[in-house]
Design goal:
Layout (H helix, E strand, L loop, with lengths): L2 H18 L16 H9 L17 E2 L5 E5 L4 H6 L5 H12 L9 E5 L13 H18 L3 E5 L1 H8 L5 H4 L4 E3 L2 E6 L2 H6 L8 H22 L1
The site of iron/sulfur cluster has 14 residues, from helix 5.
């Protein structure tokens, strides 16, 4: 058999396996599976690796700059996100945009936003460990494709789902962590800030203001040294 035929057989077997990815969580999604976010989004929109695929309207993959230096990762889509196919829309998303804008950051230029789970859990419940495990390889591919300088993890479920750290968000918010060679900071979820509107010193909104200024300073430092 010529080496060209051998090579084409190799290609075929790979693409068959790739076609099966959205059908079963046991099919691995290896690093480098997707060439771009469009290919990944196509799989997410036909995916049934977990039962959340049965009830979604749209898979919610991400939005923002695909080469952003900052990636914001949340837990899972809510109702607005499921309807629009975009993460962090509605009141939480508007507040997140305001928080970013307060230090001259925007999703157009500096930030890409995604969730661990791409499909909405019924009644906005927390995704189960199995659902998180089924969907996480898509997120790993998104992180590889965007290759951000830093990752902001919004809320305790995102922190636990990604780093395995089970500490409460009030304990670890604002701390820089290293995960898989990447700089990460846990921050409050915007929906938590909506429920806690006080801006008093020490209140969640005040703490978020400290954290986002630290993120801005770190980004400036990285840019200056690169
Ligand atoms: S949540 Fe993720 S793994 Fe589950 S069906 Fe949706 S895209 Fe697939």
């Amino acid at each position: 058999m010529s080496s060209e035929i051998q090579l084409s057989l190799f290609d075929n077997s790979n693409s068959d396996q790739q076609d099966l990815i959205p059908t079963d969580a046991k099919i691995p999604i290896t690093s480098g599976t997707y060439n771009n976010m469009t290919e990944l989004a196509q799989h997410c929109n036909q995916c049934h690796r977990c039962s959340l695929g049965d009830t979604r309207t749209h898979a919610v993959v991400g939005r923002g700059n695909l080469q952003a230096p900052i990636m914001v990762i949340g837990e899972a889509p809510g109702q607005n996100e499921d309807e629009t196919g975009l993460p962090f829309v509605g009141r939480s998303g508007q507040l997140l945009e305001k928080i970013l804008a307060s230090v001259n950051l925007s999703t157009e230029n500096d930030v890409y936003i995604a969730n661990i789970n791409k499909c909405r859990p019924p009644n906005n419940r927390v995704p189960t460990l199995d659902e998180i495990a089924a969907c996480k390889p898509y997120l790993w591919e998104q992180i590889r494709l965007v290759n951000p300088k830093m990752i902001l993890l919004t809320g305790a479920t995102a922190v636990k789902g990604i780093t395995g750290d089970k500490r409460g968000i009030t304990k670890i918010r604002g701390q820089w962590l290293e995960w898989e060679g990447r700089l990460c900071m846990p921050i409050f979820h915007p929906s938590y800030l909506l429920r806690n509107p006080s801006k008093e010193k020490g209140a969640p909104k005040w703490l978020m203001w400290q954290d986002i200024q630290a993120v801005r300073a770190k980004l400036d430092e990285i840019r200056k040294n690169s």
